[in-house]
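On clarity, I found the account of how folds are encoded harder to follow than it need be. Since the whole study asks how a given chain folds, the encoding of that fold should be made plain. For the editor and my fellow referees, an illustration may be useful. An entry of this sort, consisting of the sequence and the corresponding backbone structure tokens, reads as follows:

:::
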Amino acid sequence: MATQLQGSLRPVEGMARQYDYWLTVYKRTWRGGVVSSFATPLFYVVAMGVLLGGFIDGDPDQLEGATSYLAFIVPGLVAAHAMTIAVSESTYPVMGAIKWHKTFFAQLATPLAVRDLVNAFVAFVVFRVASACAVFMLVLAPFGVFESWWGPVLAWLAQVLVGTAFAFLTFGYSARLKSEEGFGVLFRLGVLPLTLFSGAFFPITNLGPVLEWVARLTPLWHGVSLSRMFCLDTVDWSLAAVNLGVLVVLSVLGWRWAVTGLDKRLEV
């Protein structure tokens, strides 16, 4: 096997050696992500939560404890936004590093191992997710949608975990693709249905008993559930433990899926 899952460098050292590269990437690309990461979601919240929400009764019994539709939609929308950023940043950039500009091949000519490439790449994606969600939550704080000071902090951590899980899983998928046509399938049959049926826009109890349990099996629902419970201060700690456990397990499995996928793809 030409590439190795484990290298001679420690994981932290392997990531640290790529710091300058990813800093340069960020300096060159941050402007292009401002609209998609910050402005567009904010406008969407105003349109859906404030304008449309004004026509929806704020019944806590119907909105999982939220006193307004804005308070209901914000936590789920930010969690879905974390997933979207993670998936977007782990599709074409991964294929580009393999197929077009071949950055990964150049990096493997150094003491770096496949594990180090995956770790640094996903760390950069998680940074993008964390910064976008943090700004999102700070901007929304004056709208009065949070019930405690600590809830949004824990919700933000849950959103970052959502991004981490989806970044690893998407990386593994992208590393195995030969053509970018597969990304259209991913967004149409993966991202879009997950967003619509995650409980971000309406309670999943509206789907009926069968589809409700299908929704509960989707990874994004666990992130939406955590984010909303923390923001609204309606935490069911047993459910939160399940949500957290699912996302952690997906992150661990996703890491392995990403590393083995890239290792096989870079064999020469």
